[in-house]
Design brief:
single chain; 153 residues; eight-stranded mixed sheet; 1 helix; globular
């Protein structure tokens, strides 16, 4: 019997708990908290709200990639891209829905940011959480995929 390939699966549960923050230029942003279960570990999450696109409930493949535009410490940001989601932005284009590091609602627009801790206005240790998630998925590698199951809209 051939070895069965097991796809790493992440589970996102939205909490309907909202926080707000202000960007460096003073713009207010609202985000929703959630919990991301990865194996036996739970992470806090933030997703932007207040008129921004968001991933609907369902199951989605996510793929590791380097950001074509964002850099962290001078290197392209490592992130997951949500595939085949069918969500369009206000310009009628397919939305770029991602999972990447971020600590406050104004750090994400239609994306999901994981964190190891929670603060009054956001989450903490986001880059460390993302690295642990990459490790759970077999280590970072462009093109590697996992499954993201989203509960609640």
């Amino acid at each position: 019997m051939p070895d069965e390939i097991i796809t790493p699966t992440l589970y996102l549960v939205r909490t309907k708990v909202f926080v707000s923050s202000k960007s460096e230029d003073g713009e207010a942003a609202m985000g929703e908290r959630g919990i991301l279960v990865v194996g036996t570990v739970s992470y806090h999450t933030l997703e932007r709200r207040g008129g921004y696109v968001t991933l609907p409930a369902g199951e989605f493949e996510i793929e590791m990639e380097h950001s074509p535009t964002k850099k962290v410490n001078g290197k392209p940001r490592r992130q997951f891209r949500v595939l085949n989601h069918g969500v369009y932005n206000n310009q009628g284009k397919l939305a770029a829905l991602l999972m990447h590091q971020g600590n406050y609602p104004h750090h994400v627009t239609g994306c999901i940011a994981p964190g190891k801790t929670q603060s009054q206005k956001g989450i903490g240790q986001s880059s460390k959480a993302l690295e642990e998630i990459f490790t759970f998925c077999g280590g970072f590698g462009v093109g590697k995929r996992a499954l993201l199951v989203v509960d609640g809209d």
